Amino acid sequence: MTLPPRVTDRAFARLAEIAESMGGAQALRVAVEGGGCSGFQYDIKLDAPAPDDLVLEKDGQKVLVDSVSLPFLANAVIDFSEELIGARFVIENPNASSSCGCGTSFSI
């Protein structure tokens, strides 16, 4: 059974911090597009909802996934990672057969 992506509490909490610093709610768009060193790459940005988006929401914070990207992100986990080298939203994608070292590019 194909499940939609899941967003961790840590990712929603970081999105709430971003919204607070920007003076209002911001939706995080997670999309997949062709490119990168492995064939596909993630495009993660603040954006407004579109009519065909899957909206994952918690406490007023929204993560958006468009209908084209949804099959590539089935069963994936959208998280936020904070390490010494930096902080970023990360995708744990069980559909990816391989990925590049930076984690933003993958193949299926």
Automatic annotation (TrEMBL):
This is Iron-sulfur cluster assembly accessory protein. Gene3D superfamilies: HesB-like domain. PANTHER family: IRON-SULFUR CLUSTER ASSEMBLY 2 HOMOLOG, MITOCHONDRIAL. One of its GO terms (biological process) is iron-sulfur cluster assembly. Residues 7-103 form the Core domain. Pfam families: Fe-S_biosyn. NCBIfam families: iron-sulfur cluster assembly accessory protein. GO terms for molecular function: 2 iron, 2 sulfur cluster binding; 4 iron, 4 sulfur cluster binding; iron ion binding. It comes from Fertoeibacter niger.
